[in-house]
Every structure is written in C-alpha cells, then in structure tokens.
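#struct-help
A.M.: can someone run this one for me? Single chain, 153 residues.
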Amino acid sequence: MNKRERHQAIREIIGSRVVGSQEELRVLLHEAQWDVTQSTLSRDLREMRVARMPTPEGPRYVSPEHLGDGAADDRTLIEEVLPQFFSSIDGVTELLVLKTIYGGAQPVAEAIDDAGWKEVVGTIGGENTILIVCRSPAARETLEKRLLKIAEG
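D.P.: on it. Structure tokens below:
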C-alpha cells in the first residue's frame, strides 16, 4: 500500500471521528490494516498539514480542507481560525511574527497562504509562531493592520 492511500485513510479517520493523539490515530490505522510507526505517522501529518486543534471535546486532528467546516456564514478560512488562535503580532521591515496559542500556528499559516494576499511572499509556521515574509515594509504594515482587525473578530 502506498503513501497516497495511507494519507487517504488518515483523512477518512480524522474526518469521521474525534482523534486527539497520534497514538490513538496509530491504533485506528492499525485496525484499518495500516501498520505505521509513530515517526511515519508524524511525518504524514506534517506533509498533510494536519493540525491539532482545541475543541470543546478536547484536542482533535483536523485536515486543512475541514478547518472551516461548520461555519454558519460565509467567513473566509482566515476569518474562521485567526480569532480562535491569535495571541500577538509584531514586525520589522518586511517580516511579521504572529504568535498563536499552542498548536494554532499551522492552521493560521495555512489560512494566510490560502487567502492569497498580494502582500504575502510566504509563511513558515511552527507550533505557536508564524513568520510571515511580506513584499515590502509598507505591505507589512497593511497586512499587520488587516490581521489585527480579523483577530478582533
């Protein structure tokens, strides 16, 4: 069985139930006839850009295509996730550093990339910090104001 099929199995599992840990996901994959190591699973989740998000039921894994699910209106992905995870923002020259709650950087970075804003060259997301590279200092100022407005809801 190949990686593409394994990734599809992961998407189906996390899309159909609450999965809160890699070990729980690994066991569910094993039950579905996928024997994967923790390191392979961790690499798969990173490649798939799967985020572990806080929910009322506890943390759960969510794939990028499901991040905006359940929205009652026509908010964009960034409008959906940024207010949930935002902590602070600061910048110099063409660089912005956006801080999130732990585990929030990946979904927010994905949402910023998905927005397709002309001011953004690219993002690098860790666990709770995103580096946003902007096209110019003026673009950084514009983007910083936009992100603060969205974060405030």
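A.M.: thanks! The two ends are 44 Å apart (CA to CA).
D.P.: also worth noting: Residues 77-151 form a domain with the Gyrase A; domain 2 fold (CATH 3.30.1360.40).
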